Amino acid sequence: MAENDSAQEKTEEATPRRREKAREEGQIPRSRELTTTALLLAGTIGLAVFGQFIGQKLMAILRFNFELEREAIFDTSVMISQLTTSFYDGLLALVPLFGVLLVASVLGPIALGGWLMSVKAMAPKLSRMNPGAGLKRMFSLKSLVELGKALAKVIVILLLAIWLLSGMQQELLALAHEEVVAGIIHSLRLSVYAAIALSAVTILIAIVDVPFQIYDHAKKLKMSMQDIKDEHKDTEGKPEVKGRIRQLQREMANNRMMAQVPEADVVITNPTHYSVALKYSPESMDTPILLAKGGDHIALKIREIARAHDIEIVQSPQLARAVFYTTEVDDEIPAGLYVAVAQVLAYVFQLRNFRRGQGERPQHPRNVPVPPDLRFDK
User: Fold this and answer.
1) pLDDT score of 176
2) Cβ distance 309 to 261 under 8 Å?
């Protein structure tokens, strides 16, 4: 039992197929802290860069709405015109900032894990509504880490805020002695710089969170040896299924091969263990080709088909074995067997002429010349 439990421990790194499947299901490493950092920094830096532009646009909108002619104040139709113009001007003022935030909202999530659009991840799952699973997630290691990150963010940002306020104390108190417009501009500048500094602190949280998310994702994808074996079976196919497929492929190849036997000019036999069917057409072929070959019961089947279609069967053990072992179906015979096969084919063609009443009966070719390196004496 202990050995079985140990075998089921997920100690192996995820295979490429496992990672690909997880990605299809929407399981990729994501860091909310990295996204938050990107949005905060983009927003605060965007305010620093476009703040003056936005302020000028908003002041122009205020002047446009408060500096009205006396007749326009009592004209109710002007209200719609003023509202529409102010809306478009306000939207135009915020477009640069919104553009920066849009880019940050896209780049932040895909910086870790890349771009992913998974239909499976968006599909509703009833398992997410299971109270037991919800409680398990609440008290999991990941939840504790998230709680720790939240507390760390609060503490770090609070300490930095106290440090910034103490450092800017004299400057903040001096705002009371400045003119109104200059004081407002100065206070806004201080606020933006403080916001950038506070946002930059989240980089420290993201630096800790990103490696943890990568580690946690890799841990979730780990597999046991049994998982790897099952995946291999699903990918490569079970041995019995693969064996059955190979058997069907052989049967199809044999059926296709047997269908070509009636086209042969001669069948050379061992005489019992091997049979090879050859075809040669001087008008369309340079050399004879092998249409079919087989041993034992396939050899017997080839001979039966040959007899049924009146194809000459010639016994030549050495030549039959040589063709069987050196030539594949639909291939040309090797050059070393040209002379031997030519003698057999000459005998067959002369025998056909004799049966038509032309010429004398040829002698059966015995001891055809098979080169020593092409002999298979089995």
Assistant:
1) 81
2) yes
